[in-house]
TrEMBL record:
<dbReference type="InterPro" id="IPR001214">
    <property type="entry name" value="SET_dom"/>
</dbReference>
<feature type="domain" description="SET">
    <location>
        <begin position="67"/>
        <end position="221"/>
    </location>
</feature>
<dbReference type="InterPro" id="IPR046341">
    <property type="entry name" value="SET_dom_sf"/>
</dbReference>
<dbReference type="Pfam" id="PF00856">
    <property type="entry name" value="SET"/>
</dbReference>
<protein>
    <recommendedName>
        <fullName>SET domain-containing protein</fullName>
    </recommendedName>
</protein>
Length: 237
């Protein structure tokens, strides 16, 4: 293992309940050593879009295990992730509420696909099912395959029993983290938010987006990941 360039991995103790012992647990994003100054500047630039402003991570959000969720083994044989793990709410979560940041290795989005950025780094992001675009234009992505936090255990809603026709109850969104970036005063990150209540929501659904004990579910799938890899291999964005 010696000689390979690896991202720094901030750790926290104690780990979340049911965290895999062999997997580094992050309390902050891990920055790839291959990120250039231009990538870092882009990461620490808050884009302004009045029609879709970036949600902000609270300054007082403490790093470490998230008390709002728990990693739980899936024991229902009808669940697509049977025998693996999912992420479940430990309390009611309101529509639009931040669940937790999605932590992993922030890396160059396209260069590593099929062509590592250096001879000393043979990890291929194309093999990851945990890689999300952070900014296509800036060529930045975040991968939680080799390290991460509880958010990496969020499953897709498709095929999950007991949903009664309901789809995802959460979503990945790029957010602004004012706790990061040093003197620059902030950094973009990926985070998980409860979906907003729809216009037709009534009663409890208007105030509770994810109920206590309910699995946190987003919309993704093989098509999403494969499409991302195909975009990168063809140079698309």
């Amino acid at each position: 293992m010696g000689g390979k360039a690896k991202p720094q991995t901030p750790h926290s103790t104690p780990f979340p309940i049911n965290w895999p012992a062999q997997l580094p647990y992050l309390t902050a994003p891990s920055l790839s050593p291959h990120l250039t100054p231009a990538h870092l500047r882009a990461l620490r630039t808050r884009l302004t879009d009045s029609s879709d402003p970036l949600p902000e991570i609270p300054r007082d959000l403490k790093p470490g295990p998230c008390p709002a969720v728990r990693i739980t083994r899936i024991t229902d044989p009808n669940h697509p992730a049977y025998g693996q793990a999912g992420l479940f709410a430990t309390r009611d979560l309101a529509p639009g509420e931040l669940v937790l940041p999605y932590l992993g290795e922030v890396h160059i989005g396209t260069a590593p696909f099929g062509s590592p950025t250096s001879a000393s780094d043979d990890y291929d992001y194309a093999t990851s099912d945990y890689d999300l675009w952070l900014d296509r234009d800036a060529d930045l992505a975040v991968d939680a395959a080799r390290m991460g936090n509880e958010a990496r255990f969020i499953n897709d809603y498709r095929g999950v029993p007991g949903r009664d026709g309901r789809k995802a109850n959460a979503e990945f969104r790029v957010a602004w983290d004012p706790r990061r970036g040093g003197a620059e005063g902030g950094e973009r990150c990926m985070a998980v938010f409860v979906l907003h209540a729809g216009k037709r929501a009534v009663g409890r659904a208007r105030v509770v987006g994810i109920a206590k004990g309910e699995e946190v579910l987003v919309s993704y799938g093989r098509g999403f990941w494969q499409g991302r890899r195909e975009e990168c291999s063809t140079g698309g964005s």
